[in-house]
């Protein structure tokens, strides 16, 4: 009887612990994961996943979308979770992760006529690459960046990164989700869209990057993540999350 009572109290405690609205930070310009549409409304694969979790669990999630740099900084301080995060050894020291919910194909876009052979990170030696604030593009890329193999031009806005490419201010730009991701960026800006034929997506991906929801370890959200993992599995089965 006493054991059954203890189990009941544990269940009630865990339910109460995660009953309050949970804050999750995200980028507002991370196609197709999280972004704002032309009307300023939240969209994206991760947004749909969070809504699916809310429907299954009855719990609320406050999705705070802003720049990736701000979102990562707040998550790093334990102010909430962050969705769309990739794994690195350094991040594993400070974050508890969900199961992966999507695999993003990260590639390189160049200006027509300035293509170059790309088979590995070593082929980027000496190049100036346009990247997103606080983003990781895999351990190999990150280590090569720190070692000074190439240079980076950091810019939050994806359309600005492509404009720099168009006007020869960088050698290539990192773009997520292949040609589909490129098309989404181009459609945001009529000038870029009119010059669609000037952009070439190099055939070999830079990295295939599994994405996760994560919380700072200090928040002790492992139990919440277990429930979210069930929502990920259900969302995949029901087609809420598309294949990349």
UniProtKB/TrEMBL annotation:
Protein's name according to its UniProt entry: Substrate-binding periplasmic protein
Pfam families: SBP_bac_3
The species this protein was found in: Iodobacter arcticus
PANTHER family from the UniProt entry: ABC TRANSPORTER SUBSTRATE-BINDING PROTEIN (PTHR35936:SF25), MEMBRANE-BOUND LYTIC MUREIN TRANSGLYCOSYLASE F (PTHR35936)
Lineage of origin: Bacteria, Pseudomonadati, Pseudomonadota, Betaproteobacteria, Neisseriales
Keyword annotations from UniProtKB, A to Z: Signal
Secretion signal span: 1-19
Domain Solute-binding protein family 3/N-terminal: 21-244
SMART domains on file: PBPb
Domain of life: Bacteria
Keyword GTP-binding applies: no
């Amino acid at each position: 009887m006493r054991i059954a009572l203890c189990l009941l109290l544990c269940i009630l405690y865990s339910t109460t612990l995660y009953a309050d609205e949970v804050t999750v930070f995200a980028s507002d310009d991370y196609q197709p994961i999280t972004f704002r549409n032309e009307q300023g409304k939240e969209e994206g694969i991760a947004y749909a996943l969070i809504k699916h979790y809310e429907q299954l669990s009855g719990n609320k999630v406050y999705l705070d979308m802003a720049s990736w740099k701000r979102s990562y900084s707040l998550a790093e301080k334990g102010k909430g979770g962050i969705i769309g995060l990739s794994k690195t050894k350094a991040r594993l020291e400070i974050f508890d992760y969900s199961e992966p919910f999507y695999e993003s194909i990260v590639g390189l876009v160049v200006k027509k006529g300035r293509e170059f052979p790309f088979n590995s990170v070593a082929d980027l030696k000496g190049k100036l690459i346009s990247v997103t604030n606080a983003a990781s593009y895999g351990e190999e890329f990150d280590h090569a960046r720190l070692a000074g193999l190439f240079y980076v031009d950091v810019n939050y806005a994806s359309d600005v990164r492509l404009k720099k490419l168009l006007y020869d201010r960088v050698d290539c730009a990192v773009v997520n989700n292949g040609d589909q991701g490129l098309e989404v960026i181009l459609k945001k800006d009529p000038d870029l869209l009119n010059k669609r034929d000037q952009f070439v997506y190099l055939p070999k991906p830079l990295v295939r990057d599994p994405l996760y929801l994560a919380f700072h370890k200090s928040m002790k959200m492992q139990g919440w993540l277990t429930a979210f993992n069930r929502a990920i599995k259900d969302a995949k089965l029901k087609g809420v999350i598309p294949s990349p």
